[in-house]
Amino acid sequence: MNKWFLVVLTGLMTACGADTGSAEAGNNAVNGDQAKAAFEEAFEGMKVTEVRAAPMAGMVELDVNGRESVYMTEDGRHILIGKLLEIKDGEVVNPAEERFEKVRKAGIKELDPADMITYAADDETAEVYVFTDISCGFCRKLHRHIDEYNAAGVTVHYLAFPRGGATTEAAAAMRHIWCAEDRAQALTDAKLNNEVIQAELSDCAKPVDEQYQLGNTFGVRGTPAIYSTEGEQLGGYVTPEQLLQRLN
């Protein structure tokens, strides 16, 4: 039974938590020790990194491995896994996504352009930040249309996100790409022609691991993951026309 819950947690959960600035959460005292202990005992190898008051009475919000959030009764007996939506002024909002947008917006402002692989539009009207993996089919599909995105006025900044983690073959290959003399061409060759350059590795490879960790902070759960300069999630693979609609 524990394995089934683990699959649900790691495979279906996409939200990272409720807005801790809500009035309900702010007024509830956090008493999550029992829930934390029960969760970590039930799910071996998973660590609760933070406990917050949940908007629902009698429940707490647990951050798991610094990436996911689940809701649990204070007595540690019942778990709620999924997106928590809130009705605010007649509108349905996702508090977790609102919190993520703030984190992403701040993180994007701190990015060093030299650490990304950028395909710039000649007549730029918008910029997007795309976490990518060279072994991802939809990432390759998106890249086949890179000229169309640029022609539509969209500059694409790629960040590395090897989905399986820093020890995978994809991560190793992406370090060579990030160290290539012509990184944009090396990335295109890898995605479209399955040709991975063998460049000399040095500090130029560090952004791959750093961006993977940043993606976890941003709430990336799959690739491609596209974000606006304001931190808004624009989706996974989308056509140039769909991307323009979402940007507007």
Please outline the helices and strands:
Blueprint: H1 2-11, H2 23-27, H3 33-42, E1 48-53, E2 59-64, E3 68-73, E4 79-80, E5 86-88, E6 91-93, H4 95-109, E7 117-119, E8 126-132, H5 137-143, H6 146-151, E9 154-160, H7 169-178, H8 183-193, H9 206-218, E10 225-228, E11 233-235, H10 240-247
Parallel strand pairs: 8-9
Antiparallel strand pairs: 1-2, 2-3, 3-4, 5-6, 7-9, 8-10, 10-11
Cross-sheet strand order for the largest sheet:
7-9-8-10-11
Q: What is the CA-atom radius of gyration, in angstroms?
A: 20 Å
Provide a count of the helices.
Answer: 10
Through-space gap between termini: 45 Å
Helix content: 25-40%
Overall shape: globular
Share of β-strand residues: 15-25%
Largest sheet: 5 strands, mixed
DSSP strand tally: 11
Kindly state the mean pLDDT as a whole number? 85
Structural class: alpha+beta
Q: Helix and strand string, N-terminal first?
A: HHHEEEEEEHEEHHEHHHEEH
Unreliable spans: 1-28
List its salient traits.
single chain, alpha+beta, 20% strand, disordered N terminus
Descriptive account of the structure:
The protein has 248 residues and is an alpha+beta fold. It is built from 10 helices and 11 strands. The strands form 3 sheets. Strands 7-9-8-10-11 form a 5-stranded mixed beta sheet, sandwiched between helices. A 4-stranded antiparallel beta sheet has the order 1-2-3-4. Helix 7 packs across helix 9. The protein starts with a helix and ends with a helix. The N terminus is likely disordered.
